[in-house]
Amino acid sequence: MRSWADLPESSSVSLDAETVAGYDAVVLVTDHESVDYGVVLEHAQLVIDTRGTLPVDSPNVTRA
Fold this sequence. Notes:
Order of helices and strands: HEHEE
Helix content: 10-25%
Strand content: 5-15%
Radius of gyration: 13 Å
Structural class: alpha/beta
Distance between the termini: 25 Å
Shape: globular
Number of helices: 2
Number of domains: 1
C-alpha cells in the first residue's frame, strides 16, 4: 500500500460480496487483474466505471 507524508494513512478492504454490497458506490479508477469484477458487478449498488471495464448495459453501471 502506498503512503504519502501529507495525507492520512490508507487501508485496504477485501472485495468480497459482503464488503462490496455494504458500500453505496464502487468507483473503478484503474484496472487490476486480481480484482473479481464479477463480484463487483453482481453486488455493488452502483459502479462508476472510469475504465470501461464492465458492460455498459448493466443497470448498476455508469461510465464516467
